[in-house]
Amino acid sequence: MSKKILQFFALLLTTAALLALAACQSAQPTPAPAAPVEEKPAAPAEEKPAAEPTATPAPAPTEAPAEPAAEERVLKVWHYESDTGAMGIAWAEAMKQFEASHPGVKIEFEQRGFEEIRQTAGMILNSDEVPDVMEYNKGNATAGLLSSQGLLTDLTEEATSRGWDKILSPGLQTTSRYENGVMGSGSWYGVTNYGEFVMVYYNKDMFAEHGVEVPTTLAEFEAAMDKFVEAGITPLAVGGSEYPAQHIFYELVLSQANRDWVNAFELYQGDVDFKGPEFTFGAEKLVEWMDKGYIDKNASSIPAEDMGLAFIGGQQPIMISGSWWYGRLINEIKDFEWGSFLFPGNTLNAGSGGNIWVVPTNAKNKDLAYEFIDLTLQKDIQNILGNNGGIPVNADPAAITDEKSKELIANFATLNENDGLAFYPDWPVPGYYDILVAEVQELMAGSKTPGDVLDSLAAPYAEQKASMQ
Questions:
Q1: HSE (side-chain half, CA atoms, 13 Å) at 358
Q2: Which residues are bridge partners to 360 per DSSP?
């Protein structure tokens, strides 16, 4: 057989064997695929690196995530007291202590003007940009009005649970409690932490130089002022464009009044005759004092601050105004000796518990506001207030060491014990402050008669009283 034929038969046999083997494998069941095996990439071709590679550091151990920091809370406090006055000094210390005892709380303090707060409080408290606690004017026309409008938080539960109702005497509570906008009863809508009253400040050096004694009656007071006029000195520093002049007018009215009259005028507990002896005497006497030269003829345009600066500067020997000036006088008068006495002959004087802390209805941190108010009533803060010319309501008597402050506190105690606090003339009627300022200015300028001024005061009062019935 030829060689080519033998190669052909060999190829046929090989092909047949391969076909038989394929048929045999196709008859077996297909096994489940094996788990994939991770392929390792082939090592790259070795190349010479441009620089020696830096070894990768081992990863740091994983730490548990830190707790998120607590969000800082902000207590917004507003008041209008001077930095050098008793309340300003005491409340600055209260803020310092509050932050120290409340980690995570920051006090944001704003000093606002008295006139600014008086004129804009209703608008501010109707907004969302309100403080958490602020000093506000007490009385029917101010705190009473805002409480009746739902703009102030009811503090009755706090007053009871924190003992404020035990710290403040019933007389001092009068301006903290309001019912239908009228002070003296009902719920607590504010808290005072000091007392105040109107008095007579005098320059002892000028009194001694002109041989003037401290008067004890109205007649003696006028005789003392006559001596200064004779010496070419206008005795009274007066601010007619704000509250001071109306306080003098009210002191003269009170010289003829009693407690029943005060309660009728301030609390609507009776009828008030604006042409009666009380108001008539006050209006006519103020005109007489202008005519006699006791008050500068241009005083109707002078603001309270300029009045105070005139007395502090030794320009005029007498200033009739409130105890809120006392601490400032202690700190700022350096060139002469000064003192104070109660308005001569009066058993009633303008005065009350001081302006009040209020918590707006829209306040965001009421719990902190309550704690701050409580702190201002504690003895250490009260002692600071008392030693800087304020009238504390909860001080330790033994801790009051300043002699002038002792004199002030003693005079207030005399008034309080003898039911001599007669509130303020602008309290009964919303907007009465502005009416009184304008009408007393007219009286001082001689552009209206006493009778016309009293008619102008009577009309809004009658309208307000009728609306309360």
A1: 32
A2: 152
- HEC readout, 274-286: CCCHHHHHHHHHH
72's CB contacts (< 8 A; 6+ apart) are 104, 105, 106
Prediction pTM value = 0.76
Question: Could you read off the pLDDT of 24-63 as tens digits, one per residue?
Answer: 343 343 333 333 334 433 333 333 334 444 444 444 545 5
Mapping DSSP onto H, E and C, the string for 362-425 reads CCCCHHHHHHHHHHHCCHHHHHHHHCCCCEECCCCHHHCCCHHHHHHHHHHHHHHHCCCECECC
What element of type H or E holds 222? helix 218-230
Q: How far is CA 166 from CA 169, 188, 379, in A?
A: 7, 13, 14
Burial class (CB in 10 A: 0-12, 13-18, 19+), 140: buried
Residues of the chain with pLDDT under 50: 1-59, 61, 68
Buried residues in 161-187 as b, exposed as e (16+ CB within 10 A): ebebbebbeebbbbbbbbeebbbbebb
154, containing H or E segment = none
Residue 263 has which token pair? 């309660």
Question: Is the distance from CB of 385 to CB of 392 less than 8 angstroms?
Answer: yes
Residue 39: Cβ within 10 Å count: 6
Angle, helices 277-291 vs 432-445, to 10°: value is 50
Q: How many C-beta neighbours within 10 Å does residue 316 have?
A: 20
Selection from 201, 176, 155 nearest residue 317 by Cα? 201
Adjacent-strand bridge partners of 319:
201, 237
Name the helix (H) or strand (E) containing 239.
none
**Cβ-contact 221, 294 below 8 angstroms:** no
In terms of Cα–Cα distance, which of 356, 142, 182, 344 is closest to 263? 182
User: Would you give the distance in Å from CA 307 to the centre of its chain?
Assistant: 24
